[in-house]
Design a protein that fits this description.
It contains 35 helices and two strands. The chain has 746 residues and is an all-alpha fold. This is FHF complex subunit HOOK interacting protein 2. Pfam families: DUF5917, KELAA, RAI16-like. Belongs to the FHIP family.
């Protein structure tokens, strides 16, 4: 009480006394602090009962005022005094001793305000960065310490200063070898400083120093105490402290200095923190969760997951644990995105090895259907959420492997997880199939070239899906009979598009195994099939008696044109930096004699597509959705293989068009055994659209739903083919207007 009264009296005297020059006033307040230690014998009284906080605040105000009154960058006498007499060193010693109790908080606050308020660069001065480095080491020593708030404020202020001037970080890479040698040379380690004699320090050069080159030559021996202290504070029980510590780490990892990045990844436990906590949150999730809950739970940015335990428990079991996991995943993703390039690569690799491989892979490779479904749904959510380039690449390498060479049937098990995931697209459980197909659909939309190269493109590089015939021989045959090859069949003559009887339609199985043969009518001088021929090929694939969309309003071809135009534009934006060829590789440069394998991924998709009449509606929607995403990609070989019905397939090869042709052939056989096929088809379509209430069950409903999906898919492929052709010849006109003009002309 007496001390508080003294403090009030002192403030009153200062207010009435004539103002002193700033330097004298500054020295007065500093002397008042040092005299306290000389005159006071009771060192157990808290610092708040003394005048020390008031004197420190006055010193800060004087330094701020001095800088405000002087020209920018000019050091005033008060700041010179602080630097010359090593005041920060003395305060550090007092704070470390925490004498009187609470002094550590005061010192931390003084450092924080000094660095935050003073605009001129202070950290280059040896009598600033050296005590700052020492004070950093005191932070995070004790969890839940009363000084945690001041510690994190101080550390974040230092981080912000380093962000402004990244080269300064080299002052904070403390070389262990150098420190050990200095300790040996002194004979007694660190020299003890006397806080009661602050004015007797030797004069030192106060010009800003340059970072020592030893840090770049011996980075493996560097201590990154700033990172270590922040990492310690991420373990605080106070969530606010944890968030601030994570923010500080985000600033530190973004510093571009190579030595700091190397030290960050080699001499700190940052990667261990990221991966251990990811694993911890993942293992806290329930073994079984509804995939819909995983897919639809709200996205939470790290540090902002305010929650209510009662509300979360009422929503679904495990919601809080799921949000915690996704929140930390978001932090890892954002930190790696902000990190210096080499540090980002190392951190992402650690996540792959210590979390994906060690924790997630066993879950994905298990045989329990419930476990497979839950882990696949979680993986799908992870893929959707990851945005950093480095982490996405490592995630993709984990899932698919790093192979880019031609895929062979014998080598599809080379990467076990890739093989298992692709096989799950054709799982006995429809739920697992749908979830895995959805996972690949999301993968295909990620801005990572390796995904497409690994899954599809490496199998199409040599164009050996095309029959190996010399171009000259082909041209000679094409002119044998009035400019037509003797075995050419026009669309109008093709069994698929005629009104022949079912018996005649199926008399020759040749059309089931290959696409319609090429003809000069279908090919332009540059070798490209005319787009309207391709569009009509897809639109006419499903026979009229199996079509039902024309009887329902709003299900026309135009809707798919609009969607295809938007989606193709988005894909082009993603793929434009990948240097894909705009035209197919010339046959002269292709190895057409090498055996063609469509690849494990396309094999499973084509197999699924071939069973579209016998699969559940939801499975068919997902299969066709993945295939349409592939068809949209602006790659010449993929476009040719999936969207050109007139390529001459090599023996034993199949394309998307040939697979659909086989399905249509099967359909035409089966429809004749279903009485009232057309009315039933229309009823099922209206029920799927919600235009008819559910009533009596309809027989053959799976086949009828498959026919509807098939018709819509062919319209979608036709729209994609048209939009891609239009984009290749012109970017200015509206493709929708163009197709309307085309239809009007015809």
């Amino acid at each position: 009480m007496f001390s508080k009264f003294t403090s009030i009296l002192q403030h009153a005297v200062e207010a009435l006394a004539p103002s002193l020059p700033l330097q004298e006033d500054f020295v007065y307040h500093w002397k008042a602090i040092t005299h306290y230690y000389i005159e006071t014998s009771d060192d157990k009284a808290p610092v708040t009962d003394t005048n020390i906080p008031s004197h420190l605040e006055q010193m800060l105000d004087i330094l701020t005022q001095e800088e405000r009154e002087r020209e920018s960058g000019e050091t005033g006498p008060c700041m010179e005094y602080l630097l010359h007499h090593k005041i920060l060193e003395t305060l550090y010693t007092l704070g470390k001793a925490d004498c009187p109790p609470g002094m550590k908080q005061q010192v931390l606050s003084f450092y924080t305000k000094l660095l935050g308020r003073i605009r001129q660069p202070l950290l280059p001065h040896i009598n600033v960065h050296r005590p700052v480095q020492k004070l950093i080491r005191l932070c995070g020593e004790v969890l839940a310490a009363p000084t945690e708030n001041e510690e994190i404020q101080f550390l974040c202020t230092v981080c912000a200063k380093l962000k402004q001037d990244p080269y300064l970080v080299n002052f904070f890479l403390e070389n262990k070898t150098k420190k050990l040698e200095a300790s040996k040379d002194s004979g007694a380690g660190l020299v003890k400083e006397d806080p009661c004699s602050p004015d007797t320090g030797q004069n030192q050069n106060q010009t800003p120093t340059s970072p020592s080159p030893v840090h770049s030559t011996l980075p493996n021996n560097d201590n990154y105490n700033l990172v270590s202290s922040l990492l310690n504070l991420t373990k605080s029980p106070d969530g606010r402290i944890v968030v601030k510590a994570c923010e500080g780490l985000m600033l530190v990892v973004s510093l571009p200095e190579p030595a700091a990045a190397k030290c960050l990844t080699e001499n700190t436990e940052l990667s261990q923190l990221l991966t251990d906590r990811l694993a911890q949150f993942y293992r806290a999730l329930p073994q079984s969760m509804d995939p819909l809950d995983i897919e639809t739970v709200e996205s939470v940015n790290w540090g902002l997951d305010v929650y209510n335990l009662k509300e979360d428990a009422a929503a679904f079991a495990g919601k809080r644990a799921l949000i915690s996991f996704l929140s930390w995943l978001d932090y890892c993703d954002q930190l790696i995105k902000e990190a210096q390039k080499t540090a980002a690569a190392v951190l992402a690799r650690a996540v792959r090895e210590r979390f994906f491989v060690a924790v997630m892979e066993p879950q994905l490779m298990q045989t329990s259907e419930v476990g497979i479904l839950t882990s696949t749904a979680l993986l799908n959510r992870i893929i959707r959420q990851v945005t950093s380039e480095a982490l996405l690449q490592e995630t993709v390498y984990f899932l698919l492997g790093e192979e880019t060479g031609p895929e062979t049937l014998a080598g599809i098990t080379q990467h076990p997880l890739r093989h298992r995931l692709i096989e799950h697209c054709d799982h006995l459980s429809d739920e697992i199939s749908i979830m895995t197909l959805r996972l690949f659909e999301h993968l295909l939309q990620k801005p990572c070239q390796h995904i497409l190269q690994n899954l599809v493109l490496r199998c199409l590089e040599e164009r050996n899906y095309i029959e190996n015939k010399q171009q000259e021989e082909r041209e000679e045959r094409e002119h044998m009979e009035n400019g037509q090859p003797h075995d050419a069949v026009d669309l109008e003559e093709d069994p698929l598009f005629s009104d022949l009887s079912p018996d005649n339609r199926l008399s020759s199985p040749d059309w089931l195994s290959c696409s319609p043969p090429p003809s000069t009518e279908h090919t332009k001088p540059d070798g490209k099939t005319e787009v309207h021929k391709i569009v009509n090929s897809f639109l006419c694939l499903v026979p009229d008696e199996a079509k039902s969309s024309y009887q329902v309003e709003g299900t026309g071809y135009d809707t798919y044109l609009r969607d295809a135009h938007r989606q193709f534009r988005d894909y082009c934006g993603v793929c434009q930096r990948w240097d894909w060829r705009s035209s197919p590789k010339s046959f002269e440069k292709c190895n057409l004699d090498s055996p063609f394998f469509e690849g494990h991924f396309l094999k499973v998709l084509f197999d699924r597509m071939g069973r579209i009449l016998d699969q559940p509606y939801d499975v068919n929607l997902q299969v066709t959705s993945v295939l349409s995403k592939l068809s949209l990609l602006p790659h010449a070989h993929l476009h040719e293989y999936l969207l050109d019905p007139y390529i001459n397939l090599a023996p034993g090869c199949r394309s998307l068009f040939s697979v659909i042709v086989r399905v249509v052939g099967d359909l035409m056989l089966r429809t004749h055994h279903i009485p009232e096929f057309t009315p039933k088809l229309l009823l099922v379509r209206k029920r799927l659209l919600g235009l008819e209430p559910e009533g009596m069950s309809v027989d053959h409903v799976t086949l009828l739903e498959g026919v509807i999906v098939l018709e819509e898919f062919c319209k979608e492929l036709a729209a994609i083919a048209f939009v891609k052709f239009h984009a290749s010849v012109s970017t200015s006109p509206d493709p929708l207007a163009t197709v309307h003009r085309k239809q009007t002309d015809e």
